[in-house]
Amino acid sequence: MAEEEDHLQQLRSKATELFIREEWKDSIDAYSHFITLCTQNLSHSQTQTHSDPQKLRRSLCIALCNRAEARSKLKDFHSALQDCDHALELDATHSKTLLCKGKILLCLNRYSMAMKCFTTAILDPQHCGNSECLNGYLEKCKKLEFLSRTGSLDLSDWVANGFRGKVPELAEYIGAVQIKKSEISGRGLFATKNIDAGSVILVTKAIAMERSILLGGKDPCEEAQLAMWKNFIDKVSDSVRKCHKTRGLIGMLSSGENEDELDVPDVDLFRPEGLENVMPCDEDADMVKLLAILDVNSLTEDAVSANVLRKNHDCYYGVGMWLLPAFINHSCCPNARRLHVGDYLVVHASKDLKAGEEITFAYLDPLCSLSKRKEMSVTWGIHCKCKRCRFEGELFSKQEMKEIEIGLERGMDVGSVVYKLEEQMKRWKVRGKEKGYLRASFWSAYSEAYRSEKAMKRWGRRIPTVEAVIDSITDVVGGDHRLLKLLMEELKKKSGGIVEMEKIFKLGKEVFGKVVKKQAARTLLELCIGD
Ligand SMILES: C[S@@+](CC[C@H](N)C(=O)[O-])C[C@H]1O[C@@H](n2cnc3c(N)ncnc32)[C@H](O)[C@@H]1O
């Protein structure tokens, strides 16, 4: 008996030493060995070889708790949670395990469950040493739980501080949306209630994300990009391997084939606190399918609709996988935009949305011509048939239109391009939204003309005002930072009044979403001009 006890003692000391040295993998192995022997010893109650089973049970509880901590350091949250539950079966009020479990649940965005752990731990009379830390976690949990219920995030302090300090912690939030069959392609995300422009629709943490900081240049070199993609794929595979819920959810995404035949999942499955055991998929991840899914659904931070809130204008190139936003289809007249805050993706309405309306992003730049959009859509493997593409498709076959486009490409005076287009629109009786489509397609000519003193001297009186053009483009493509920038430059020239400023704030909300209070909004807008 003494020999067995010595052996257990040695194993425990070795595991603890490795744990203190933060050698997580080796400490997990050592604790696993100890846990197996302990469990065998305790389960053979008749032949029990330990002199003090009560003490052994306590040691087992601590070993499970430490293995959980080590596993969570390696982001193996699933196994770590199982260890915590096992430890809590031995001692339901073990405060260190409750703290560990609460922290893991927080990482998994299961705020109310985490809150229960911290509250129970605080009630434990032996928690005294951890009191401050537990209260801190409890406060954080309450804040995040509120955010996950309401979606009312406030990034004011961080933005007003020039993005200094830690990236604010966000919580998962799913607004009034559902997944349904889409007329665009396969499934799409739809509003279930009216949503105002600027309102946050989703806040989602990436299941995996990889960034490269590329110094000295905007275009990431191929080698750095390849390395980043490789790391990203490794991270996704790791998270899919470790969590069957992630595996089940990612398996529901499109791999680009037979999209119209895919099942329509319930949006509730994507809630962090949603049921774990509803996942149909428990098979091993098929790497070929996984790569196809990543190809179709990964998002890059530098995309047109992605405003990256970050420090110092570092040249980042980031790629990530966010599950629910992967159901958002493309439109050349998008009504939503995305914002990257750390590993979180914040999706907000860039126009007012009606209940039942499909939520769409711009995968491709909506402020460029049909031919350029067509060229870019090849990379996405999509053939867009939206109203705008259909309308422009018919018009772009007209000789006059071809001449305007070729003229622009060959460096024709931008003022005259704008003038010609406006005159043609009158002749063709183009009205309402359709005017916005064409102005958006020739945005480069409009923005250059309005910024050129020479062009404005010559054409200024014969072309519509900046405000009128921006209004009509915003009406079709929603808020866009380039429109905002031009509007602000105009305001500076004219030193505009309150009405103009309100217009800018409104457009700012459509571009960045309602994520900051008014004072911080000014900082954001200044950053927009400085871009
Ligand atoms: C990120 S997924 C969007 C959700 C997808 N419809 C589904 O059912 O899972 C991207 C894929 O949706 C399809 N898609 C999205 N927008 C489209 C559009 N405007 N026209 C045609 N296909 C589109 C393409 O097959 C694209 O590869």
TrEMBL record:
<dbReference type="InterPro" id="IPR019734">
    <property type="entry name" value="TPR_rpt"/>
</dbReference>
<dbReference type="InterPro" id="IPR001214">
    <property type="entry name" value="SET_dom"/>
</dbReference>
<dbReference type="InterPro" id="IPR046341">
    <property type="entry name" value="SET_dom_sf"/>
</dbReference>
<feature type="domain" description="SET">
    <location>
        <begin position="175"/>
        <end position="364"/>
    </location>
</feature>
<dbReference type="InterPro" id="IPR053209">
    <property type="entry name" value="Gramillin-biosynth_MTr"/>
</dbReference>
<dbReference type="InterPro" id="IPR011990">
    <property type="entry name" value="TPR-like_helical_dom_sf"/>
</dbReference>
<protein>
    <recommendedName>
        <fullName>SET domain-containing protein</fullName>
    </recommendedName>
</protein>
<dbReference type="Pfam" id="PF00856">
    <property type="entry name" value="SET"/>
</dbReference>
